[in-house]
């Protein structure tokens, strides 16, 4: 029998376990090596992470995770994620009567999540705004993310702004990782 572990799927069921799991995944993401030339250590990231590709052909590493929570517990995180975001197709309206759209205003992102979005777009963080850097490869940007976040981590005061677990989640999730129970609300 082989003692090699293949894949581990993590189940996070409920709000508390998603808080704990977010800390776990942030730690795993910080230790994830994106460089295929590095030697395998004791921790093999492909056991916990799934490698995939976006529609643009970029390599992604998403956790092997199933997270369940109640409606309203995601705030700024979209249930389907943002990695494999296909452009929204306009559907043909077949209704001949009047049509009224009701849209909820999206929750505001905290500075930590805003900086993560900027890094995902290949931009540099606030302290480097005056000195723009040339465009780099995706691998160079992903390796630089940890160093840039480590420099500015003390500047984030998330104690007052974190309301749900997704307010401090660093990594992207697969579109089928999150399952929301719509019959019940998180806030009561």
UniProtKB/TrEMBL annotation:
Domain Misato Segment II tubulin-like, first and last residues per copy: 6-118
Presence of the UniProt keyword Transport in the record: no
Principal location class: cytoplasm
Biological processes, Gene Ontology terms: mitochondrion organization
Keyword Cytoplasm included in the entry's annotation: yes
Subcellular location, record wording: Cytoplasm
Keywords (A to Z) from UniProt: Cytoplasm
Highest taxon of the lineage: Eukaryota
One of the record's GO cellular component terms: mitochondrion
SUPFAM superfamilies: Tubulin nucleotide-binding domain-like
PANTHER family xrefs: MITOCHONDRIAL DISTRIBUTION REGULATOR MISATO (PTHR13391), PROTEIN MISATO HOMOLOG 1 (PTHR13391:SF0)
Protein name, as recorded: Protein misato like 1
The species this protein was found in: Dissostichus eleginoides (Patagonian toothfish)
Top-level taxonomy: Eukaryota, Metazoa, Chordata, Craniata, Vertebrata
């Amino acid at each position: 029998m082989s003692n090699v572990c293949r894949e581990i799927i993590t189940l996070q069921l409920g709000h508390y376990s998603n808080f704990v799991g977010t800390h776990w995944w942030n730690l795993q993401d910080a230790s994830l090596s994106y460089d295929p030339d590095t030697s395998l250590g004791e921790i093999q990231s492909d056991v916990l992470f799934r490698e995939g590709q976006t529609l643009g052909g970029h390599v992604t590493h998403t956790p092997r995770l199933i997270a369940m929570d109640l409606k309203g517990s995601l705030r700024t995180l979209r249930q389907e994620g943002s990695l494999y975001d296909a452009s929204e197709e306009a559907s043909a309206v077949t209704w001949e009567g009047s049509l009224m759209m009701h849209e909820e205003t999206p929750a505001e992102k905290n500075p930590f999540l805003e900086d993560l979005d900027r890094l995902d777009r290949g931009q540099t963080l606030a302290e480097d705004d005056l000195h723009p850097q040339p465009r780099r490869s995706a691998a160079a940007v992903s390796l630089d993310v940890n160093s840039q976040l480590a420099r500015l981590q003390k500047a984030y005061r998330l104690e007052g702004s974190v309301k749900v677990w997704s307010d401090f989640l660093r990594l992207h999730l697969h579109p089928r990782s999150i399952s929301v129970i719509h019959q019940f609300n998180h806030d009561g």
